[in-house]
Design brief:
It holds the Pfam family Amidase. This protein is an alpha/beta fold. The chain has 15 helices and 15 strands. Strands 1-3-2-8-10-9-14-15-13-11-12 form an eleven-stranded mixed beta sheet, sandwiched between helices. The protein has a two-stranded antiparallel sheet with strand order 4-5. Helix 8 links the parallel strand 11 and strand 12. The two termini are about 15 Å apart.
Length: about 450
């Protein structure tokens, strides 16, 4: 019903048995020894297809090597359960797209409401965790692709500071914005998974240490991040009260500078053309080698690849002039000023540890003809900055999950984990466990 997993791993059971034998022999690799993990299908796995949801890569051999983050998962004793479906090409192919659809994996649906979106582009990772297929999954984010499906599916989604998790072996959109990150049932699970993904130098579980936030100052972002969903606003106001009960000082009515749409697009458009060619060069002969070849493939297979929406973003990216282009340089500088300077100035001037806002609107009805109907989001500034975000479930609106998003400066991942864990613990003490999905149609 959910179609969260596009490629199961046929070796998962034998891998699990081998790891059980290691444990029985007294050899435990760490806290995630034997834990099943699902991996988004734009992350290289040497034993499984890696397609980005496209038929252009579906019939090609698997990549020659695991992505470094997958290698770290295996070394930590994780069982790769399979690959999760995604919005094709991580939702950076064309306008009017429907999150969760790919030509290779079909349409991923929200377990809480099968006629509503699972968000994207890490649709399968979020839906799989919500559906109970695995407690641990890996997503990727360029702009909202972890925190959006996390919010819509009622799970925890952590987008780390860009560069904290290695990008090697991830099919790219934007080297300045792309990162992989955990999608899990709980904040502590995301912390444990981030420890593995980053190589183990920092134990992020240490940040999960109770609910006392009396030494913390949190800025409340208002403006356009509120007002598009009355139910979401009400749940978020209640979340702010929870932070106050934990002792946090809230600094309210803050805002970030409005973003220019062109800057948001020009950076990934220019970086996609260059980065995708470098990635495709790592795949075996027979696979497309350039963005132009991918565009040609889609034109040759319109009924399969282009039935619902086009490839205007691919075509615009193909027309760009590379990373030396004055357009790219100007857009990148503007993005950094708006993103990094905006966030850091707000944090510094108000002596804040983090920022909080509503995450995303409740899941919208799936509409393959007209595309997504996103009412609002909160990921853009952090995307341009390459800064971390953490989405944690805050409640429901008409039975649909919603969340809050915590953000901060570069390297504040542990702080966000601490705040999210405290909030999660306090919310459960007050409201009980988050409701489980019923896998039915909804209004």
């Amino acid at each position: 019903m959910v179609r969260a997993v596009c490629t199961p791993n046929p070796a998962a059971a034998s891998d699990a048995a081998r790891l059980d034998t290691e444990r029985d022999d007294g050899r435990t690799r760490g806290p995630l020894h034997g834990v099943p993990v699902l991996v988004k299908d734009n992350i290289d796995t040497a034993d499984l297809a890696t397609t980005a949801g496209s038929l252009a890569l579906a019939d090609q051999p698997p990549p020659p090597d695991d992505a470094l983050l997958v290698r770290r998962l295996r070394e930590a004793g994780c069982v790769i359960l399979g690959k999760t479906n995604l919005s094709e090409w991580a939702n950076f192919r064309g306008y009017g797209s429907s999150s969760g659809w790919s030509a290779y994996g079909g349409l991923t649906r929200n377990p809480y409401a099968l006629n509503r979106s699972a968000g994207g582009s890490s649709s399968g990772s979020g839906a799989a965790v919500a559906a109970g297929l695995a407690d641990f999954a890996i997503g990727t984010e360029t702009n909202g692709s972890i925190v959006c499906p996390a919010a819509l599916n009622g799970v925890v989604g952590l987008k780390p500071t860009v560069g904290l998790v290695p990008q090697q072996g991830i099919i790219p959109i934007s080297h300045s914005q792309d990162t992989a990150g955990p999608m899990t049932r709980t904040v502590a699970q995301s912390a444990a998974l981030l420890t593995v993904l980053t190589g183990g130098g920092t134990d992020y579980l240490e940040a999960c240490r109770g609910t006392d936030l009396s030494d913390v100052r949190i800025g409340v972002l208002r403006g356009s991040l509120w007002g598009y969903s009355t139910g979401l606003d009400q749940v978020t106001e209640k979340a702010l009260e929870t932070f106050s009960r934990c002792g946090a000082t809230l600094v309210d009515h803050l805002s970030l500078r409005a973003l220019g749409d062109d800057d948001q697009l020009q950076v990934p458009l220019h970086e996609l053309k260059v980065g995708l060619a470098k990635y495709l060069a790592t795949r075996k002969e027979g696979a497309p080698r350039t963005l132009a070849e991918l565009i040609a493939f889609n034109r040759e297979h319109p009924d399969e690849e282009l039935p619902w929406f086009g490839q205007e973003l691919f075509e615009r990216a193909e027309e760009t002039g590379g990373l030396d282009s004055p357009i790219y340089v100007a857009a990148r500088l503007s993005a950094l000023r708006t993103g990094r300077d905006g966030i850091d100035t707000l944090l510094r001037d108000n002596q804040l540890d983090a920022l909080v806002s509503p995450a995303y609107s409740p899941a919208w009805t799936i509409d393959l003809v007209n595309g997504d109907h996103v009412l609002g989001s909160s990921s853009q500034h952090a995307a341009l900055a390459g800064y971390p975000l953490l989405s944690v479930p805050s409640g429901t609106v008409a039975g649909l999950p919603v969340g809050i998003v915590l953000g901060g400066t570069a390297g504040s991942d542990a702080t966000l984990i601490r705040l999210a864990h405290a909030f999660e613990t306090a919310r459960i003490e007050t409201d009980g466990p988050f409701p489980t999905p019923e896998f039915r149609q909804w209004v």
